[in-house]
Write a structure and sequence with these properties.
The complex is a heterodimer of chains A (286) and B (109).
Chain A: H1 2-24, E1 33-34, E2 38-39, E3 43-45, E4 56-58, H2 66-72, H3 80-92, H4 102-106, H5 115-118, E5 121-123, E6 128-130, H6 132-143, H7 154-166, H8 181-191, H9 202-206, E7 213-214, E8 217-218, E9 229-231, E10 236-238, H10 240-250, H11 261-273, E11 283-285
Chain B: E1 6-10, E2 14-15, E3 19-28, E4 49-56, E5 59-65, E6 75-82, E7 86-94, E8 99-108
Parallel strand pairs in B: 2-8
Antiparallel strand pairs in B: 1-3, 3-6, 4-5, 4-7, 7-8
Classes of the chains: A mainly alpha (286), B mainly beta (109).
């Protein structure tokens, strides 16, 4: 008798929790239009290489609550745009022994349109797959004679946000074949490898359980089309690889370091999972 | 003076007489609370914007006192009635005595 009573109670409590979660849930059907003009693709068919695993890919924006969603829909309300402004100043600022700024070679930041949509990619002159931060630091060291920026530091992430804005609305299109294929495969292997005391792979949460809650967190597909991301929890722009570190730390593993070859490969693979979604950076997330 | 301070305002350029319009303002500012310590254990001195005002043709619209608990890059959104053509004037007062200003003309017609 007692057992039945207890289980009934448990059932009632679970029912109440489900309702509460429903009320706080994001509007997963909403569409994102930035400044009332730039239409973003926040859901689309999964790219061919993912079709065994997923039918549809979703931007992380879909999983956030209404307020956070709206904050990203207007550049004035998007706190990430403050950092884009700062990067505009850095773009024009002369730094280093060569007396050059970004603008000396690249003119306006508009010349960077499309860059964020295709990186990380194979760079022939370097003979390796590179991310945008590697290219930015390459420019700083070898062309400007300036000190390289910290990979996940404020200056670097702001500059990446400025680059992302130039490609905003363009579909992510990271090449998975050609000379970069080997790095891509390595990234894929890392994605599906279980790490840490909790023995979790990226896929366990972001492929098998997106849309579900892991305690209070609403799991997204872990798409990185919105990076750099302004997070409300730390009130700054966050780099992809800093996010990777956080995620792997949460599996109670020893994370790879930001800038490591492992994370470059993982960034390439994860970016390619979002092929077809719009470049959103700087996005707003919780 | 705090670094990287830049006021921003979003207001409509035109309105009908007596219309209530929404105004959004944001100023990038670190809003250092004065409660934090640096890596050597020394107190980081307080440096915040302590007052924000908006005027329309010299009439006060809003006057806000800000305190140290307000987070970085303070954002204000408020509604204001526009009785005639004129200019909104926005002023932010920094602890260090700096004053930052911006203005937006609104045409009624």
């Amino acid at each position: 008798m007692r057992n039945i009573a207890t289980s009934r109670l448990a059932f009632a409590v679970a029912g109440a929790l489900t309702l509460a979660a429903g009320a706080a849930m994001a509007d997963e059907e909403a569409d994102l239009v930035i400044n009332g003009e730039t239409e973003m693709t926040v859901r689309t068919d999964a790219p061919a290489h993912l079709q065994d695993a997923l039918d549809t890919i979703y931007s992380g924006w879909v999983f956030r609550n209404d307020d956070t969603q709206m904050m990203q829909a207007d550049d004035f309300d998007n706190p990430g745009m403050i950092f884009v402004d700062q990067a505009m100043d850095a773009w024009a600022a002369v730094d280093g022994s060569e007396g050059k700024s970004c603008a000396s070679c690249h003119e306006g930041p508009e010349s960077m349109a499309g860059v964020s949509a295709t990186y990380p990619k194979w760079v022939e002159t370097a003979g390796e797959v590179r991310t945008t931060w590697q290219q930015i630091n390459d420019c700083r060291e070898n062309r400007m004679g300036a000190k390289p920026w910290k990979i996940t530091g404020g200056d670097m992430v702001a500059m990446q946000a400025l680059l992302a804005v130039q490609s905003r609305g363009m579909p992510v299109n990271v090449a998975i074949d050609g000379p970069g294929a080997e790095t891509w495969e390595k990234g894929k292997e890392i994605y599906y490898t279980r790490y840490g005391q909790l023995e979790l792979s990226c896929a366990n949460c972001h492929e098998d359980n997106y849309g579900n809650y892991i305690r209070a967190d609403h799991l997204s597909q872990g798409q990185i089309n919105g990076f750099p991301t302004y997070r409300l929890k730390n009130a700054k722009l966050n780099a992809v690889q800093a996010r990777f570190e956080g995620c792997i730390r949460d599996t109670r593993a020893e994370p790879f370091k930001a800038g490591s070859p492992e994370f470059v490969a993982l960034e390439m693979y994860v970016a390619s999972r979002g092929n077809g979604l719009s470049v959103e950076g700087p996005s707003v997330r919780n | 003076m705090a670094e990287g301070v830049k006021p921003r305002v979003k207001a409509p350029k035109s309105a009908s007489a007596g219309e209530v319009v929404t105004i959004k303002t944001l100023i990038s500012h670190p809003m250092e609370s004065g409660q934090r310590k640096d890596s050597d254990g020394n107190k980081i001195p307080r440096s915040i914007i302590n007052r924000f005002t908006a005027e329309f043709n010299g009439t006060s619209v809003i006057d806000v006192t800000m305190e140290p608990a307000i987070s970085t890059n303070p954002y204000f959104e408020f509604d204001a009635k526009v009785p005639e053509s004129g200019e909104f004037k926005f002023t932010w007062y920094d602890d260090d005595g700096s004053v930052y200003e911006d203005s937006k003309p609104v045409t009624v017609g």
